[in-house]
Amino acid sequence: MPLLHSTIPPNLSFQFSNNLQHKHGLVFNNLIQQQRQIKSSWVSQKQINFSLVTAKATSVEVGVSSSSTKAAESDVLKALSQIIDPDFGTDIVSCGFVKDLQIDEALGEVSFRLELTTPACPVKDMFEQKANEVVLALPWVGNVNVTMSAQPAKPVYAGDLPKCLQTVSNIVAVSSCKGGVGKSTVAVNLAYTLAGMGARVGIFDADVYGPSLPTMVSPENRLLEVIPETKTIVPTEYLGVKLISFGFAGQGRAIMRGPMVSGVINQLLTTTEWGELDYLIIDMPPGTGDIQLTLCQVVPLTAAVIVTTPQKLAFIDVAKGVRMFSKLKVPCVAVVENMCHFDADGKRFYPFGRSAIWNSTSLSASGDSGKPEVVDDPLGEVAQTFQDLGVCVVQQCAKIRQQVSTAVSYDKSRKVIRVKVPDSDEEFLLHPATVRRNDRSAQSVDEWTGEQMLQYTDISDDIEPEEIRPMGNYAVEITWPDGFNQIAPYDQLQTMERLVDIPQPTPA
Fold first, then answer.
1. pTM of the predicted model as reported, rounded to 2 decimal places
2. For labeling, which of 135, 166, 290, 426 is most exposed (least CB within 10 Å)?
3. Amino acid 50: pLDDT
């Protein structure tokens, strides 16, 4: 199976000593501070430090009553276009968030639905309020009815995913690359933070040798069930979050070789009835070996969160993990620094040397009690820090999905393929025939000899793609009229001959 995923965002810095911002016991990169500045400028009157999480949709669905007019419809859409998505810099009408617009001009009534890409949108209440305000400000409008919804859970990846993962929107790996830094604590509290924000969440404990999840949560049913007819696994649940761990399989800790572990992880992850999930959090085992590579290859990871401690030794392993995810095209969206210092008897102690933040004793205790800290004290400082991390993850996942979904498209009016690789400001155009002729699959190039089997003249100059679909964060799949499905990695598209003389649009 091909390696999936996307490059590390350019605004994510790994100059740890300078760019990690700290707060309350966990710290992660300057990405959070940048987000707060953007958000506060957009909703400064409410002093809300959250980002509107939305991704570009394809169209505006309009259902207009018989008594409405095009002018009234235009008034409403113009009013709503005043609301700008702070992440993408585009108004909500152009993004396609407005659905089911209904207008009764005679009664002065307007109704519509705002469809978010995730139910965990941190400012959905403010978003709804702003939409009400701008439409109600129209002189002929007397009543506005706004309903909020979220898109059905679905992955960006267009390939043949295991059936059980076909209704999971985002898969986020929480990785430490080194043991004992609090990775499982971060994974569990992040998951329950996202659930508290309204998302449908699951946790997959990928550590077979020493599973942590059975200790950190307390589900009533502590044994996984298997459906004999489908041979699929029913996850256990705790406070609405779906849970899978080898520790719930009745086996406890396991003694087995690497290939066996990879097989167990693959089976647990891909045969579980996850249902519709907005976020599946994978608590990765420490290290960067076969198990980690297997997980990255079996499923299309949306993003990764790295957990570390202040020691130089831990930072070395973090850098190793970042390089691993970079090679696998998985964006690292946050670095969390744990166990920096703790407070006791009115003094502050730095067990690993003076660094950024504090180590919460309540956070450590919650990991042993079976009740996550963000659930036990939802208004506490630790919960607020995880809220910030949750907003970062939600926002970045939405941006990654939006970038991937629009990275490669076909402009039918100009008969060109548009390419804008994620995390790149450059957009360029390719001739469809050039893309088709540069296929490097076994059907076009002999795998043993390297002989070019697909000849230049085999492809017509006027060939056009029938469909272009994302392949995770690293490539697209293009369907051609002859039935051939071409996998075109972004790296390869960037090396092809580009169009300089831009064709004029063909009249409709």
1. 0.79
2. 426
3. 30
